Amino acid sequence: MPTPLNNTENNLNIKTIKDLIRKYQPPFWVYDSEIIYKKIKLLEKFDVIRFAQKSCSNIHILRMMKNKNIKIDAVSLGEIERALSSGFAPNTNEIVFTADILDQETLFKVVDCKIPVNAGSLDMLTQLGKISPGHHVWLRINPRFGYGHSKKTNTGGENSKHGLWEPELAIPIIKKYKLKLIGLHMHIGSGVNYSHLKKVCESMTKYVFQLNQKISSISVGGGLPIPYKFNDEPIDIKKYFMLWNIARNKISEFLKEKIQLEIEPGRFLVAESGILISRVWATKKMGNNNFVLVDVGFNDLMRPTMYGSYHHISIVAGDDRIIDEKETTNTVVAGPLCESGDIFTQKEGGTVQSRKLPIIKIGDYLIFHDTGAYGSTMSSNYNTRPLIPEILLKNNNSIVIRRRQTIEDILNLEK
Question: Start and end of every Orn/DAP/Arg decarboxylase 2 C-terminal domain (predicted)?
Answer without folding.
Answer: 28-372
